[in-house]
Automatic annotation (TrEMBL):
Protein name: Transcriptional regulator
InterPro entries: cNMP-bd_dom (IPR000595), cNMP-bd_dom_sf (IPR018490), HTH_CRP (IPR012318), RmlC-like_jellyroll (IPR014710), WH-like_DNA-bd_sf (IPR036388), WH_DNA-bd_sf (IPR036390)
SUPFAM superfamilies attached to this UniProt entry: cAMP-binding domain-like (SSF51206), Winged helix' DNA-binding domain (SSF46785)
Top-level taxonomy: Bacteria, Pseudomonadati, Pseudomonadota, Gammaproteobacteria, Chromatiales
An example Gene Ontology biological process: regulation of DNA-templated transcription
Native organism: Thiocapsa roseopersicina
Alphabetical list of Pfam families matching this protein: cNMP_binding, HTH_Crp_2
GO MF annotation list: DNA binding
Domain Cyclic nucleotide-binding span(s) in chain numbering: 44-163
UniProt superkingdom: Bacteria
Membrane spanning residue stretches: none
Length: 249
């Protein structure tokens, strides 16, 4: 693992001196059933039809990644696109002048590493923010399916456009304004990503929240404490809260 990758742990919780697992450590021994996938309607392969699955010449496999697993690294040669079935992933941008910055969070049904299709290198380092179930789609399989089904290309462009819109939203909503307002906006973003859990959300580690907002941990902690006092957040388990979005209005 490179020194650059080890630096990204500054944005998350300490790992007690134990290196995070990376993609090469995972056992990709679960054969994905793409045809019957529970999140297929949200995912890249929603465009595929019955006959398309007969042309998957390499098996698509999935794995369960522990928290802090490094899926791929920035500037690493890209050989696959990944589809998230469960959990949450953080994308980290490394800069020699500004350090490491979390630039986006991705959740269930989204694809990551799409730049692999056209650029050959990954643009970010992707790290599991919590336990993650993910499918690995080799580029050869992806290219073959795109050639047979133009709708897959449309779906990929749609996912890419959505991620660009979300990146713009991060800049507009989380990068400017008073910190207490930015914390409220970030909680709303996280609540949207955890919508399947009803009104419950799992907050990332304080260091990650501070990194996303470009603020100190202490300042973010005070802003969250204000939301708790106002009953907008009610702790129900470690780092898990019931969220009353109306109380944040």
């Amino acid at each position: 693992m490179s020194d650059q990758t080890m630096d990204l742990h500054k944005t998350g919780e300490p790992l007690n001196g134990v290196a995070s697992p990376d993609c090469g450590d995972l056992r990709w021994d679960i054969l994905a059933d793409c045809r019957h996938c529970a999140v297929r309607r949200q995912a890249l392969f929603s465009a595929l039809r019955g006959p398309d699955f007969e042309h998957i010449f390499l098996p698509i496999r999935s794995a369960v990644c522990p928290k802090n697993t490094i899926l791929y690294e920035q500037d690493q040669p890209a050989d696959a696109v990944y589809s998230i079935r469960r959990g949450m992933l953080k994308l980290i941008k490394h800069s020699s002048t500004e350090g490491d910055r979390i630039v986006r969070l991705l959740g269930c049904g989204t694809a990551t590493g799409l730049e692999a299709v056209t650029h050959g290198l990954y643009w970010h380092t992707a790290v599991a923010l919590r336990e993650l179930e993910v499918c690995r789609i080799p580029l050869g399989v992806f290219d073959e399916l795109q050639a047979r089904n133009i709708q897959l290309s449309d779906r990929m462009v749609g996912q890419w456009e959505h991620q660009v819109i979300e990146a713009d939203r991060w800049l507009a909503e989380l990068g400017a304004g008073a910190l207490h307002e930015r914390v409220r906006r970030l909680v709303r973003v996280l609540a949207e990503m955890d919508a399947a859990e009803g009104n419950r959300l799992e907050l990332p580690p304080m260091a990650d929240l501070a990194n996303i907002l470009g603020a100190s941990r202490e300042s973010v902690s005070r802003a969250l404490a204000e939301l708790k006092r106002g009953k907008a957040l009610r702790r129900v388990a470690p780092r898990t809260y019931e969220c009353d979005l109306d109380a944040m209005s």
